[in-house]
Amino acid sequence: MSDRSDFNDLAREVGGGAVVKTIAAALESAPAKRQGGEAAPVVSIAENWPDPILPGKVPVPEIPVDVLPTWVRTMAAAVSESTQTPPAMAVMMALSVLATCLHRRFEVAPWGEDDGYTEPLSLWTLTALPSGSRKTAVIGALAAPLIHWEKLERDRLRLEIARTHAARLVAKKRIEKLTRDAVNAENDQDRERIRQMIEDEEAGMPAEVRAPRLFTGDVTAERLQGLLVEHAERMAVLSDEAGIFLIMAGMYSGGMASLDVFLQGHAGMPMRVDRADRCAHVDRPALTFGLALQPGVLADVASSRRFRDSGLLARFLYAMPESNVGRRDVRRRSSIPSTVQREYEACLHNLLDGRQSVASKPRVLAMTDPAREAWLDFAAEIETQQGERGVLESIADWSSKLPGAAARIAALLELAETGVAAESVSLVATENAIRLCRLLIDHAHAAFGLLGADAIDADAAAIVGWSKASGLLSFNRRDCQRAMEGRFRTVARLDKALERLVQSDVSRIDKMPNKGAPPTTMIRMNPKLFVDFV
């Protein structure tokens, strides 16, 4: 069978299964034939092909802890080692914890404070790992200092909260009594005197004092608006449960998706809510996410098209590490060293020092000249890959936000390393942020493939399925479009899917002469697909 079309003839005569059996048998006997000096035609075809990467099965690089500043890196490594979890989860959650401490208080301005373009330091991270991956343990270890800080602040403010609550309660009751007296006043003079007393009571009522909150785990959109108002326009959601997506999809609002507060919280856009039951006015909301969820949740999220169309999914930085469930050493016990825990907590608490209970103007960090040039080079690199047929075309909504995310991460890394007195974002912090963002690109491809949101991948996978089901090792483009005309109404859509297969080493495209007519476009499939190599 030296002619590649013979496989197609075989499939037509006895079915596609014969092609699979023929190639499998040839591949199994390949070593013996090479030793004897014989070269089997099928084997030579397979050996000329690299291993294919099936659509939706994008290999992802590891995310190392060394992209983080010293004390954060040490803690992330210890958490990963102790829980026997991929470092990527600890890295992403650590970044969200840093953002929880610093968002709304700081912003980053690549071109300088006077330019007008700034990025808030809110950060949305989502790590996908199956159930049983010890996600709760990782979040618990990294967020523990935040809980301890909240407790310390609650204890410190306990008496002040009690005094203020009592004073407000008395003032409200006195206003109620004065209001009744004003209604029953015998003349306008007495009514005006009482009205002035009510005004004085309201003006003298102390502002409510609340124990500060840094994050929540399960919150409705309406309550989140209230939390932003109550806690200096900033809040974080750190969770290993999928409930937040159900809430976004409208679980508590009659099925109507409620996304505005989430989108505004990422961008820092002013939020104005004026409804009969509540008012919420927030000038620069800051919302951070640190989620660790099961991959199946992402597939469920895909059922709501508004999540993608609104840009909500494009705001997350995804980590899709390989799960090591089933390969962990249950006999090994490695605790997080107490010295590492103490240093991590002390450094986080230092970042929280000076955190005001009322919203104020954020301090803006500019990039140094070398840092700005590195960031601009990265932004230009991303831009050129987002156009038609670019490697980022299918996730351009996500990648268009990546330079901004890199600037945010760089500022977080700088503040973590230098402290809240940092004056600018250094080249080192920027280079580490860019290195991390480059690694996250492949993770985003994998995430959006899992979401079912990459239409080109879906088309490419359909072609592979049709080819394997039909036992066609090669076929022409016209036959493919005719066989799948319900999916490929235009040749342009088919060509994009075929190009994706070529990029993934799943197929190759040849232009075959056609006796004076335009060349026939022939597609050759990787023979390794027919023995389920991947």
The proportion of residues in beta strands is 5-15%
Global structural class = alpha/beta
Q: What strand order characterises the main sheet?
A: 4-5-8-3-9
- Average pLDDT metric: 87
Count of alpha and pi helical runs: 22
Helicity, in percent? 40-55%
Number of separate strands:
14
Unreliable segments of 5+ consecutive residues: 1-5, 10-16, 30-43
Give the CA-based shape.
elongated
Roughly how many Å apart are the termini? 24 Å
Quick one: biggest sheet?
5 strands, parallel
Radius of gyration: 30 Å
Outline the structure in words.
The chain starts with a helix and ends in a 9-residue tail after the last strand. The radius of gyration is 30 Å and the shape is elongated. It has 22 helices and 14 strands. The strands form four sheets. It has a five-stranded parallel β-sheet, with helices on both faces. It has a four-stranded mixed β-sheet with strand order 2-1-10-11. It has a three-stranded antiparallel β-sheet with strand order 12-14-13, with helices on both faces. The model is unreliable at 1-5, 10-16 and 30-43 (pLDDT under 50). The longest helix is centred in the N-terminal third of the chain and has 26 residues, at 158-183. It has 534 residues and is of the alpha/beta class.
List keywords for this structure.
534 residues, alpha/beta, five-stranded parallel β-sheet, four-stranded mixed β-sheet, 14 strands, disordered N terminus
Short description:
With 534 residues, the protein is α/β, with parallel strands linked by helices. The chain has helices spanning 5-14, 16-28, 30-35, 41-47, 70-83, 87-102, 135-156, 158-183, 188-204, 221-230, 243-248, 260-267, 295-301, 305-309, 338-352, 369-384, 396-399, 402-418, 427-451, 455-470, 477-483, 491-503; strands at 106-109, 119-120, 124-128, 215-216, 234-239, 271-274, 279-282, 286-293, 317-319, 363-367, 424-425, 474-476, 507-514, 517-525.
